[in-house]
Design a protein that fits this description.
This protein has about 200 residues and is mainly α. The chain has a single domain, classed as Hypothetical protein, domain 2 (Endonuclease III, domain 1, Orthogonal Bundle). The protein contains 11 helices and 2 strands, in the order H-H-H-H-H-H-H-H-E-H-H-E-H.
């Protein structure tokens, strides 16, 4: 279905010029997500992004969902070496052995938390006391690649066995999942403007 951009809206400039990117910005990026399974998927995809642009992963997201059994952590956690070899040959995803292995290990870490009674969504949102941190950036140059909080979350994820969760990846995840609102203040999606409507 063709996405029609409302022309009068001001957006964060990083999403302009690509229909898929613009739709993602308008409908998903920065929207508070509290579903544990969706948070897990986002963490896996952000890890896959390491060293690449987000649009590269976004264009492959459906391929990831198909290749990784709907991003179901219970299924991914059971992947064998044979499954990982199969994924290495799948052109729908980034064919990087370490990133594939990380997805399997992260699924196992996610399930280990659940087995201990830790709800992933409650745990991750606990770092921001359940509410998004709303920033007030005027330009993209002001937006940090990481923050001290992202460093702390990264350390806690690694302590629980997660990989490909360095501070920069974690901050991108926090932005995308709405733990922080990093829409520019001029953007129609910024919380300040949304609350005024």
């Amino acid at each position: 279905m063709l996405y029609i951009e409302p022309m009068e809206l001001v957006r964060c400039p990083w999403c302009l010029g690509d229909e898929l990117y613009t739709r993602y910005h308008d409908k998903e990026w920065g929207k508070p997500q509290k579903n544990s399974r969706k948070l897990f998927e986002a963490l896996i995809l952000d890890g896959a992004q390491a060293g690449l642009s987000w649009i590269t992963i976004l264009r492959r997201r459906e391929g990831y969902r198909a290749a990784f059994d709907g991003m179901d952590p219970e299924k991914i956690a059971r992947y064998t070496e044979k499954d990982q070899e199969r994924l290495l040959g799948d052109p729908r995803i980034i064919r990087n052995r370490l990133k594939i292995r990380s997805a399997v290990g992260n699924a196992r870490a996610y399930l280990a938390m659940a087995e201990k009674g830790e709800n992933f969504s409650r745990w991750i949102w606990g770092f921001v006391e359940g509410e998004p941190i709303v920033n007030h950036w005027r330009s993209l140059e002001e937006v940090p690649a990481s923050t001290p909080l992202a460093v702390r979350v990264s350390k806690e994820l690694k302590a629980r066995g997660f990989t490909f969760t360095g501070p920069t990846i974690v901050y991108a995840f926090m932005q995308a999942m709405g733990l922080v609102d990093d829409h520019l203040i001029s953007c129609f999606r910024h919380t300040r403007l949304t609350e005024m409507k």
